[in-house]
Design a protein that fits this description.
binds protoporphyrin IX containing FE, 3 helical TM bundles of succinate and fumarate reductases, single chain, mainly alpha
Length: 220
């Protein structure tokens, strides 16, 4: 087997591990965000956001998280380009038709999520660390990040943008989870149906969980 084969295998390993790590972040981030719906006073959410924003371990971990996003996206783009370049040589009609429909769109849904992430970080994370919270978010500034989220989700266009991107996030995760196990070589036929099912449940829970937040805030 060629060294190109091994190097793309290593890339798939790295990408899968980074992806599973990002999935765990998505679950933690979702749990904290859902506090906004559970406690209307925003106390619980703000306490959690304050803890995440001041705890030294989490502060350091945040850079590992950003590294995880960067590695996942970079390696994903490289693998996709390699795949496109290799396709005409070993085009195999049967193999292509057997690919899951969603797997063909991983790069597209991934790019949409990456663009969303830049806008999302600009809207919340950058405002938080620079302390430049807009006036409409009240005089408590970064101490009341919950109010900033609520004010943003009062805008229909903003809510629509979130809902559309989060649907794409759900599709991305649906294929990603089982694909990560395949890339790690943990694709024993005995467990694959279970992993595919678990991936779908996670994609639905995460996708719908995030979508619920802007929708509930907007329609309240
Ligand atoms: C309803 C959906 C979402 C809401 C309300 C939300 C809210 C927030 C808020 C308020 C922050 C600022 C940090 C803080 O106060 O703790 C933040 C940061 C962040 N968000 Fe989101 N978020 C949502 C969805 C997402 C999604 C889908 C992703 C990833 C694809 C994401 C990735 C991040 C990252 C990487 C940060 C910076 C790290 C951090 O501070 O935890 N968020 N988000």
């Amino acid at each position: 087997m060629s060294s190109t084969f091994y190097s793309s295998l290593t890339k798939k390993y790295v990408m899968s591990l980074a992806g599973l790590f990002l999935l765990s972040f998505l679950l933690v981030h979702l749990s904290i965000n859902l506090l906004l719906l559970l406690d209307e006073s925003r106390g619980l959410f703000n306490e959690a956001a304050h803890f995440m924003g001041t705890n030294p371990f989490i502060q350091t971990f945040q850079w590992v998280l950003f590294g995880g996003f960067a590695v996942h996206m970079l390696v994903g783009v490289i693998l996709q380009i390699q795949n496109w370049m290799a396709r005409p040589k070993r085009y195999n009609k049967k193999a292509v038709s057997e690919e899951s429909y969603l797997s063909k769109f991983m790069i597209h849904t991934g790019i949409i999520i990456a663009v969303f992430l830049v806008i999302h970080l600009g809207d919340f994370f950058v405002l938080k660390i620079t302390g430049q919270v807009p006036e409409f978010a009240g005089h408590h500034g970064t101490e009341d990040m919950g109010l900033l989220v609520i004010e943003k989700f009062k805008m229909g266009g903003y809510v629509l943008f979130y809902v559309i991107v989060l649907i794409f996030l759900g599709f991305h995760l649906d294929h990603a989870f089982q694909s990560a196990f395949q890339s790690l070589g943990l694709n024993n036929p005995k467990y694959m149906p279970f992993l595919k099912g678990l991936g779908r449940i996670l994609a639905i829970v995460i996708g719908l969980g995030y979508i619920l937040i802007p929708l509930v805030i907007y329609f309240k």
